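Field reference: "sequence" (input) and "structure" (output). Example, Transcription antitermination protein NusB:
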Amino acid sequence: MRNRTIARELAIKALYQLDLLGDKAETEIDEFCRQNAEKPDIYKFALLLVTGCRSHVKEIDERISLSAENWDLHRMAVIDKNILRLGVYELLYRDDIPPKVSINEAIELAKKFGDKDSGMFVNGILDKVYNWLKNGKQKDTIQEEKAPDFGISDLHIHTNFSDGTATPEEVVDEAIRLGLSAIAITDHDTIQGFLRADKYNKGGNLQIIPAIEISAFLDPSEIHILGYFIDIHNDALIGLMKKAREDRIERIYKMIEKLHGLQVEINPVEVFDLAGEGSPGRMHLAEVIWRNGYTSTLVDAFYKYIGDKAPAYVPKKTLTPQEAIELIREAKGAPVLAHPGLTQRDNLIEDLVRYGLQGIEVYYPAYTKATVEKYLKLAKKYDLVATGGSDFHGKRKVDTPIAKISIPGNLVKLLKQRCRNN
């Protein structure tokens, strides 16, 4: 069988488990796909399908219900329902897959995993969905919301120009191989990774959104603000990046001085060599601490020495969240609150909205279903665009590959519409 056919079978098994077990299985799905895939390509495509179906399940189920006359979704066999979800997901959101391929693959899945009538049942409903798309009918908002300019996207990716390990070129190659339509390289306080990726991708079909992740601080902790569709030539933004690099270097020296007081002897040259052309940060310092045998893991280096509440921590000389948001708006971009579920400063969201916040990172690898639902409600309450991404860091976060979390093109389009002077 072809790799994608095998991946679809794996995805159906994963979706079936999720439907039966709910949140209990959610944290195990990545490992399930990894262990049961013979090749990396199979694992990654299966996970992309599962993530896509889960991200758009509401819209997908609505389209199935509209197309399945005399059939209530809750009365469908679990396996048939999830085969339909996979097929409809591909039809609605995967422009890179021919519709006939999606339908035929779904029919074969139904014949293999369903009962004797499943193939005909799935074929009938998917044909109606396909005809609806082909004829351009718009009886509900699904087709209206589907963005013409963007497809499946990962809006949170780091390269080795900040605290990731992959080069911009490697990121572009992997995103193309995974079938993504758009990515945002959101390196910390720099756009150098974006510039390299954009140059490498010239003439390609992958869209690379100019973006940045700005480190802001409001006592007692950092708050990261993502900026999308920014004007990379904006003078204020260029000034920030220059000053941020200088401050990062000074901060590394200060943290190393504190580490020496704790009998942790670190040479700053090792940190700067590891950072290379990128912005030196705590992730680089943590890796040097770990490499020198002072901790058993990178996580321990943060917990024991340089985390926000650890003895060698030094706050950044940085912007306030308000200043970060205003800077992104000045650069004609759309500011988004990064991973609020990790930051745990929800009490500030109302103020951030008042300052000009336009989006919130609702979809994130570490989130439970309950966390996603919580931030979807807050996005609706404050009229924010729900965004998301993998927060890819390469080998420094091996469990979060590119496209582990992805979002549909309609959300990217909505985000772009929130830019100033759009």
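Confidence is low (pLDDT under 50) at residues 137-148.
The two ends are 47 Å apart (CA to CA).
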